[in-house]
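Hey, resending since the last one bounced:
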Amino acid sequence: VQLAESGGGSVQAGGSLRVSCAISGLRIRRVCVGWFRHAPGKEREGVAFIDPDESVYAPYVKGRFTITRDDDTNSVNLQMNSLNSEDTAVYYCVADDLWCQVVGDRVVNTFNHWGQGIQVTVSS
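The structure tokens again:
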């Protein structure tokens, strides 16, 4: 299974960016896919996840980020609006072999497949 992120880059606060992930070796039609991020000096955190039934967003991105899935191209996208400096991080695309397992407002899957990550930088 391979996950290849694209997009990202740099933007000023208040701007928008989009990151995409092309997945091969695993059909995403019936599994949980999504995004984590990791900023310097901080713990890695979940951002948004999606499976055929639902989309789940972390509280700190809800209302600003939108995750979508394209079963035809086997890809997942994250549209990020109203970005701020706290969103600066390396963003990782992830996929599991199961549907999303949601506890409260968190997805608790142990994701088996990870991309290499892509940098998103927001300047204030």
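The mean pLDDT is 97.

Sorry for the duplicate.
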